[in-house]
Structures are given as structure tokens and as C-alpha cells.
Design goal:
Keywords: Membrane, Transmembrane, Transmembrane helix, Transport. Pfam families: Aa_trans. This protein has eight helices and no strands. By secondary structure, it is an all-alpha fold. The protein has one domain. It is globular, with a radius of gyration of 20 Å. The relative contact order is 0.19.
Length: 258
């Protein structure tokens, strides 16, 4: 569903470029530009609120996840709250970068880290399957289904960032193809881990499947480090539209958008 939304957003921007040449230039707030064409200024403001709320909420979760990994899997001496502050302090200078193309390496590193971590998690789940011989399964309720579906939507989220990424592409008409490839890759990485986790651990599987295996293992610790790297890179890319939006609102000069 989110992948389909991404392809529609990409197509919308291509249509705008064809009909209004001014949109061929770089834009600080492309999502809001898309909303303004059919819905006017009110639609632009609504889109602005929704995008900011979505991204702020998502990036907060990223920081909490990083802090949780550091506390429960790597350095338990410090509390999660302390790790939240440390993580935010480390990330702050990198949020001052311009657009995603200024730190494209972050996305590559994040994908590689995620792929390796997923392989490690999948193998460790199978290796430790003998520890869950008495796993049990419960029928889902409306509440548990809603929680699970919400987590899935979050994992495959990012639509608010799509127009910003598309704006950095040399050929923006190819964005829809990149969305299909990206989400196919995510599905190939996530699906085996989720199926194996539930099949082996059943209802005992934790909220964070990486912390549901033996975190004292060196291999698992390496996977946790990779996931932290992934989340750091994802945070930078996801947060970027917020910075660009406020630069546009406050008319910050000194960039290609000025």
C-alpha cells in the first residue's frame, strides 16, 4: 500500500513537471507542492502538518530504538533515557546537511547493514529453535492485529520523504521504478525474519525480534551494531524534509533553493 502510494507520488510530480516547468527546479517542500495543485493553499497547510507530524513521530521512534539497542544489547550501564540524549547529540550535526544527495552514502550503508543484520537474525532464530520447543500460538484479536499492522506500516513507511528523494534524482521519471525495487528488497529482507520468528518463538516473540535471541552472542551484538547503523542512516534521511521545510518557511538563504 505504501509502495503504491510512493509510485503515485512520483507520477504526480512527473505530471507537474510536464504541465508547469517551474517544478523542474529543486523544491524544499515537494510534498506540499503536490498537495497545493489540486487543493490550494489549505491543502498545502494540511499536507505540511501531516508530513511534519509523521516525520517527527517516526524519527522519535528511531532514536528510542537506537537507545533501546544500546541499553539492552551493547552498553547496559547507561539507561535508555541517557542513550536517547547521547544519540540525539550525535545525530544533531548531521541534520544540518543539505539534501539526501549530500549524504547518499547513509542510505547505502543502511541497506547493507540491514541486509546483513536480517541474515544474522534469521540464522540465530533457527539455531536457537531448540530453546522454544514449547512455543504456543494465540488467535489474534482486533487489538493485537491493529498493533501488528501498525508496526508493519511503520516498517514500510517513508512516503513523506519520497518527494524529497525524488527531487534529488537526475531523472525523476524513474522514481516509481526505484520505489518498486526498494520495497521488493525490503520485503525480501523482512519477510523471512518475521515468518521464522513467529514460527519458532510463537507468542513468546518480543516486540524487538533482535532482542528475542541471545544478545550475549558476539554475532548478535554485531547484528545490533548493524541495526544501530541502519537506524542512524535512516534517521538522517527521514529527518531531512523537516529541515528543508523550516528553511523554506524561514527563507534561509545560502543554498541552491534560495
Amino acid at each position: 500500500m505504501i509502495g503504491f502510494s510512493g509510485t503515485r507520488l512520483g507520477l504526480s510530480w512527473v505530471i507537474m513537471e510536464e504541465r508547469w516547468p517551474k517544478f523542474k527546479e529543486a523544491s524544499r517542500m515537494p510534498y506540499m507542492d503536490i498537495a497545493e495543485i489540486p487543493l490550494g493553499n489549505k491543502g498545502r497547510k494540511i499536507a505540511l502538518f501531516c508530513v511534519l507530524a509523521t516525520i517527527v513521530g517516526g524519527t522519535i521512534v528511531f532514536i528510542i530504538l537506537i537507545a533501546g539497542f544500546m541499553h539492552e544489547g551493547l552498553v547496559p550501564v547507561l539507561s535508555i533515557c541517557e542513550w536517547v540524549l547521547i544519540t540525539a547529540g550525535i545525530l544533531l550535526p548531521f541534520t544540518w546537511l543539505g539534501t539526501p544527495k549530500d549524504f547518499w552514502q547513509a542510505s547505502i550503508i543502511a541497506v547493507i547493514a540491514t541486509a546483513i543484520a536480517c541474515v544474522v537474525i534469521f540464522i540465530m532464530i533457527l539455531v536457537q529453535s531448540d530453546q522454544h520447543e514449547n512455543s504456543y500460538y494465540q488467535n489474534p484479536t482486533l487489538w493485537t492485529f491493529s498493533l501488528g499492522f501498525g508496526a508493519i506500516l511503520f516498517a514500510f513507511g517513508g512516503a513523506s520523504v519520497f518527494p524529497t528523494i525524488q527531487n534529488d534524482m537526475a531523472d525523476r521519471s524513474q522514481f516509481s521504478k526505484s520505489v518498486v525495487i526498494a520495497f521488493s528488497g525490503l520485503l525480501a529482507m523482512y519477510l523471512p525474519v518475521t515468518v521464522a520468528g513467529y514460527a519458532v518463538q510463537g507468542y513468546e516473540v518480543g516486540d524487538n525480534i533482535l532482542l528475542s535471541v541471545d544478545v550475549t552472542s558476539g554475532v548478535v551484538k554485531a547484528a545490533i551494531v548493524l541495526q544501530v547503523v541502519n537506524l542512524l542512516g535512516t534517521y538522517l534521511i527521514t529527518f531531512n524534509p523537516i529541515g528543508q521545510t523550516f528553511e523554506g518557511l524561514f527563507k534561509v538563504e545560502g543554498s541552491k533553493y534560495a
